[in-house]
Design a protein that fits this description.
Layout: H1 4-12, H2 16-22, H3 28-33, E1 57-58, E2 72-77, H4 83-96, E3 105-109, H5 115-124, E4 129-133, H6 147-159, H7 168-179, E5 192-195, H8 210-216, E6 221-223, E7 226-228, H9 237-247, H10 258-261, E8 272-274, E9 279-282, H11 283-287, H12 289-301, H13 303-306, H14 311-322
Parallel strand pairs: 2-3, 2-5, 3-4
Antiparallel strand pairs: 1-4, 5-9, 6-9, 7-8
Helix pairs in contact: 4-5, 7-14, 9-12
Length: 327
């Protein structure tokens, strides 16, 4: 068993390159609250997605040549109503880092972006900006989910004051970030991504390129902070993970990081997870066979809707099982 401080320190080694300058770059509340604030958040009977328009919108004023050497992009899952908060974050990100590298931005939304949103975000950067609408099947309840069961579970969690326990839209967001964002065709041409949330702040200049550092050092996943998950949101997640491990032992990396997520050699989950509001990673980790099988296995169990499985523990468990320690 690792002591907690040793466990955190060991994992942080892989991200020390950028840890010191992004320690304050994530606002943990932002990713949870912005998909809960919609007036449709608790509407179990209506999907909040506008399915009629799913085209990709490219809005590119005169741009500078990309100076970054890696096929990478900032990925922003955002609503039109988050524009003002994100303008501040984007301005800081440009001033502190991206003005030197001009890495592109990929904005994703479950409904079409407004002209105002495209105008103001594209005006902040000389980098390429692209705006995509999430496909219906990536932001809706799949046909194998029993919605009566899901509604009952949500209502029970709401009554128990589980954070976002009663929100359907929040569940769509968690499922999308867990298993679909990297499948959006706007990301097909990229190898790495940096997730950016509205409201985050960047206080220090970032002189070096973390994408290049990760590429050169075989690092697949980076984070800024690790926390404990709310137990009531994932009561059966670990049992499902153990089922997966038993069924697909060949997909588990031998030099894995099980010690981070379990204090008893995999018998139970210790709730540790990387906070995914800020994450930087190799898209091919999620595109690979191991994670594809893993997400599909979890998704069919229904825990994203019957419980409230989050993308943070899902990504964390996957990274711990499928990557080598140094990655």
């Amino acid at each position: 068993m690792f002591k907690r401080n040793i466990k955190y320190l060991g994992l942080a080694v892989t991200t020390l390159f950028f840890f010191h300058w992004v320690l304050n770059a994530t606002n943990p509340k932002s990713g949870y609250s912005r998909f809960e604030s919609s007036e449709h958040s608790d509407d179990f009977d209506k999907e909040i997605v506008n399915h009629e328009e799913q085209k990709v919108i490219k809005h590119n004023p005169p741009q500078s040549t990309q100076h970054g050497k890696v096929k990478a992009a900032f990925v922003v899952l955002i609503r039109n109503s988050d524009l003002q908060d994100f303008r501040v974050s984007m301005r800081q990100l440009e001033d502190r880092f991206n003005r030197k590298y001009n890495y592109p931005y990929v904005f994703l939304n479950d409904e079409p972006f407004t002209e105002e949103f495209k105008k103001f975000t594209s005006a902040i950067t000389k980098a390429k900006t692209e705006y995509g609408v999430i496909p219906k099947e990536h932001w809706s309840v799949p046909n194998w989910i029993d919605m009566d069961h899901a509604k009952s579970s949500m209502e029970k969690m709401r009554e128990e004051h589980v954070i976002y326990g009663g929100s359907l839209s929040y569940r769509h967001m968690c499922r999308f970030e867990s298993g679909f964002f990297y499948r959006h065709h706007l990301l097909d041409k990229y190898d790495y991504y940096w997730r950016v949330e509205p409201g985050v702040q960047f206080y220090c200049d970032v002189d070096d390129d973390p994408f290049l550092y990760m590429q050169n050092n075989d690092i697949k996943y980076g984070f800024t902070i690790s926390l404990y998950e709310y137990p009531k949101t994932i009561p059966t997640l670990w049992d499902t993970v153990k089922e997966f491990i038993k069924e697909y032992p060949e997909l588990i990396e031998k030099d894995n990081l099980m010690e981070f997520i379990s204090n008893d050699h995999g018998e139970t989950y210790n709730l540790c997870h990387f906070w995914s509001n800020f994450e930087i990673g190799d898209l091919n980790l999620w595109r690979g066979k191991a994670y594809t099988e893993f997400f599909s296995f979890l998704d069919k169990k229904g825990g994203f809707f019957y419980e409230r499985w989050g993308d943070a523990p899902v990504h964390s468990i996957a990274a711990a099982l499928f990557l080598k320690k140094h990655q």
